[in-house]
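Forwarding these from the shared drive since the link keeps breaking.
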Amino acid sequence: MKAAVLVSPRTAPGRFLQIEEVPRPEPQAGYVLLRVLACGVCRTDLHIAEGDLPPVRPQLIPGHQIVGEVADGATAELPLGSRAGVSWIGGVDGDCWYCHHNMENLCDHPTFTGYTVNGGYAEYALARADFCFPLPDGFDNVHVAPLLCAGIIGFRSLRVAGVEPGERVGLYGFGSSASLAIAVLQSWKCEVYVATRGENHRQTAVSLGATWVGKEDERPPAKLDRAITFAPSGKVVVSALSALRKGGVVAINAIHLDQMPAFDYDKLLWGERQIRSVANMTRQDARDFLAIAQQLRIHPQVVAFPLQDANQALLAVKEETERGSAVIVP
């Protein structure tokens, strides 16, 4: 089969991946073999390719927003020929303290799709059956792919921040994940305040009905109950913190963050404000979000790339393409 293979994580931009013929994965007990129909491109893929996340395999097929057709290993929930989705968490040990306390996203020995095991930048992918999700009707292959990480992790960020209906919520950065989270917030009757550096991103936020939109260093006109940061920047976290009311929460939706600058504790954190990180997701997050996405008919903007243009898809993420989420279609 054809696959986009990452050989060295610090190759020059534009040449991260090599398109190669590789053996098709062999079916095994407890796994489903998926014929890949589409695979979303995530900023985490770029962090892996650029070496921000340390390499764990000498060769790797990235990609963890997989939409596939069950080709082998069918189950009652995933019959042969049905569509299944795979996300970043590809498995947990089920035996550590965190798994026993309903915190599988913090498992001590997790499997990460497209990082510790091969992912979906290929014609076929192998995935644990209990970490595959039946996909709702009403979404085509390309448009459902971004929901499988950008959508789910954005939804988990709202949970980690403790968002309640009717609150004032700030979104710092307005890429794929934030643009999907805004629909959920609006269904909860929240006021949404967006601060982001890209003019096109600001225009998108306006078109999606944000209460207020400003530049990344502008302060919203009202104190926020919650804020979620989507940019991998410590400076942005401090900006979000400065906009919070007492008792408010900032949730950092980033697997990698540059250095956070020093800030004034007395002014910005005192008053029982909180900073929380968002780490991975649980299977329940995925099920809950996919149900909400179907109910709200969330329809992400996407731009599709053929498999042979996987490097261009990664560059689109690096350049924060304004056309929507990048999706690879084998």
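-- next protein --
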Amino acid sequence: MTYVVTDNCIACKYTDCVEVCPVDCFYEGENMLVIHPDECIDCGVCEPECPAEAILPDTEPDTEKWVDFNRKYSEQWPVIITKKDPLPDAEEHDGKTGKLESMFSEAAGEGG
């Protein structure tokens, strides 16, 4: 089992989760984070830290596509281990639907 970041992270990018991860398996895109599913040790400490509730175990319904999504981008984006400020309009975008189709950026973040 692994945890995955889902589309509610898009345009929010809260990073509270990265500071508690004991194996540094979060990777930073321009407007979201992902978890490398092969590095995640299934400890679950990140899930309650996410204000947007964007982190789910892969045992939840409809998360199969998110495992592949997280794997793909974690192999392209830099690791992030330090908490940063969320995106400026994070509260406004938290909970919106359709963000993957309308707001997702494949660009890498800075990492760090």
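The chain has a mean pLDDT of 97. The longest helix spans residues 64-74.

- D.
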